[in-house]
Amino acid sequence: MGIRLPTALSHAKMMLRRSFLIANQTASAVALVVPKGHLAVYVGEAHQKKRFVVPISYLNHPSFQDLLSQAEEDFGFDHPMGALTIPCKEDAFLHLTSYLNSL
User: What's a BP term from Gene Ontology annotated to this protein (predicted)?
Assistant: First the structure.
């Protein structure tokens, strides 16, 4: 009774592929999770957008509402990234969010 290498090798490759696919799907699902009380936004201009998760309490702040108005003017209700897209520079957004965190 010998071990058939082609079959064993094929089976090992299939197992490796499955574990790789499961790991990738799990990593993708974890990356897309938004905690309760938060929302995901994409920030940036042109093709360089970065995803941020911010507390929904930001929605009440007038400065953040200005960004939302700008997003509405640029995109309406059709956001190409699948989430709210805010068309401003990342530095400006980070400055605003750090200010809002300090309140």
Answer: response to auxin
**Assigned domain for 3 exists:** no
The residues near 45 (Cβ < 8 Å, ≥ 6 apart) are 87, 88, 89
**Domain count along the chain:** 1
Domain that holds residue 44: 36-102
6 domain residue, yes or no:
no
pTM: 0.63
| 3-state SS, one letter per residue, for 13-54 | HHHHHHHHHHHHHHHHHHHCCCCCCEEEEEEEECCEEEEEEE
Q: Is residue 40 within 8 Å of 34, Cβ to Cβ? A: yes
Which of these ranges, 6-15, 40-49, 87-96, has the smallest mean pLDDT? 6-15
- The CA distances from residue 16 to 7, 9, 51, in Å, are 14, 11, 31
